[in-house]
Amino acid sequence: xGVRSVLKRALFVCILINIHLGLAVNAASDEEIDxxxxxxxxxxxxxxVVKPAKHALVEFYAPWCGHCKAFRADFAAAxxxxxxxxxxxxxxxxxxxxxxDIGERFSIDGFPTFKWFEDGEAxxxxxxxxxxEMLVEWVKKLYQGGSDxxxxxKQAEExxxxxxxxxxxxxILVIGYYKNGFKDTKDKEYKAFKKLAMAESNGKDVSFYRxxxxxxxAKLGITFPTEKASFGLxxxxxxxxxxxTTIQYSAHKVESLDRSAASAEEGATVSEDDLVLEKxxxxxxxEKLADFVLxxxxxxxxxxxxxxxxxxxxxxxxxxxxxxDSESTIATLREISASLRGKMTIIVADPAVEExxxxxxxxxxxxxxxxxxxSTDFFVGVLSSSSGSRFTCGLPPSVENLDASMLVKCAxxxxxxxxxxxxxxxxxxxxxxQGNFTVVVGTTLSDVVKDPNKDVLLEVYAPWCGACxxxxxxxxxxxxxxxxxxxxVVAKMxxxxxxxxxxxxxxxxxxxxxxxxxxxxxxxxxIADAKELAEFIHKNAKISFxxxxxxxxxxxxxxxxxxxxxxxxxxGEEEEEEGEEDGEEEAHEEAxxxxxxxxxxxxxxxxxxxxxxxx
Length: 615
Prior knowledge:
- By secondary structure, the chain is of the alpha/beta class.
- It folds into four domains: 3-143, Glutaredoxin (3-Layer(aba) Sandwich); 148-287, Glutaredoxin (3-Layer(aba) Sandwich), CATH 3.40.30.10; 289-418, Glutaredoxin, CATH 3.40.30.10; 433-614, Glutaredoxin, CATH 3.40.30.10.
- The strands form five sheets. It has a seven-stranded mixed sheet.
- It is globular and about 85 Å long.
């Protein structure tokens, strides 16, 4: 995501917070706020100030952000508290709107953002309710290494019996044992455990604990093959409706660990410290989730349950709730999960489930996989978080029992780069010529853009996209001017409802030019001005034509009714986040594909400067 997109999105996040929370932006005056404990950072001094600091709390803010202004006094008070805790703790702030390179470097996508640095490295980001008290508590936890120490057998018993309130409130406990105590900062296992604990300190579903007592470690599920073992790590899962399970790191093996080791063996620049940390992360992310997750939980707590885990592929097992009453079905799900753990998550969903805030006519699962929301059959599909690619496992109609081996094979095919792809398409219009545009859908795209007798410019847009709405008048002028040129087609396709194996769309709008020749490859166009677009087509067209005059169309009225009736930037950014989750783009070309129709079943010339809404 570019600097402009990051900061544009951050502006929207800040605006939304102010609107919905009704924050007062009339913060205390400069004279009333004692921010003497806060160091001001810029691009010039950031590294020289932050890198030498053993601990640092840095606020990334923007001067125009009302929420930042409202929190200024609270941050000043928090800074005073944490620097009193230990004078070596640095409290600082940087204007990431002015210092855009800093915002880009640390992937700032909202204001204010607070990050914790250890020895100059960003290790954690605050994501809890923003208050002075919560910020201070978070810092205190990180200052202690992100974990609580267990020093007595009584404390261990309380963890196991849920008498410890903090432990009882979360389904996952991570326990680390270090024979020499957690003070040897040079030990690679200790450093890896500490970094993992700090990075995951915001997780509402996990708590980290540490001990240097081998008897306590054994009580908590860490056993050792020899008495010489100096370190142990275990995860204890206790999800409602699932059996309580303790998994020990020494017995754990996932493919990502093998790949990490292979990379190191091949001579890649991977330090031993980094390799151990990656192994711990692989273990944590692979074992964190229950055998399967309910879709409702995955959506409502997605930041902690699914979306924060660096596993790209998710298998959706979709059926009405009564289908999951069978013990054999649950056993099959657990069998599938055991085979795919660490590679693919398992999500159980009802096709008629509604996302919070969505109207009753919108069914995200049904639309994602192009199935009927009234379906009574099992459907199993796979979704990639990164690309939005969707696959079907091809269950026969009215199947009563899931076949674990078949579904594991389906998953492995997808992971290996194969699988049966799902492409969505709206119904083909009876008359594709609508006004000056040719309307394209998934099933008609190839016929239009691969016509060797036409030079074709295609816009892939989305009705919710603010940048598309802003670009629409220019594109309409171009289409009107080109209407008299028989060899040129100005086309558009709703990328939220249609996709195709021919290309990958990662942002809206996307402009692609197809020259008039057999099997033409598309040319990406980043021009947002009608006149310059006409000149581009004239220059690159395979069939020559006289360049039309655009002057008569400069003041033409443009119908924007197909776009959402909201402010372009706010609306675009809001849906941008949904696009990232739903991911209506593609990434791979596959041999086996399916087209499914959901309806059958139910001021600058550069587009980069003018703006995109990224998926």
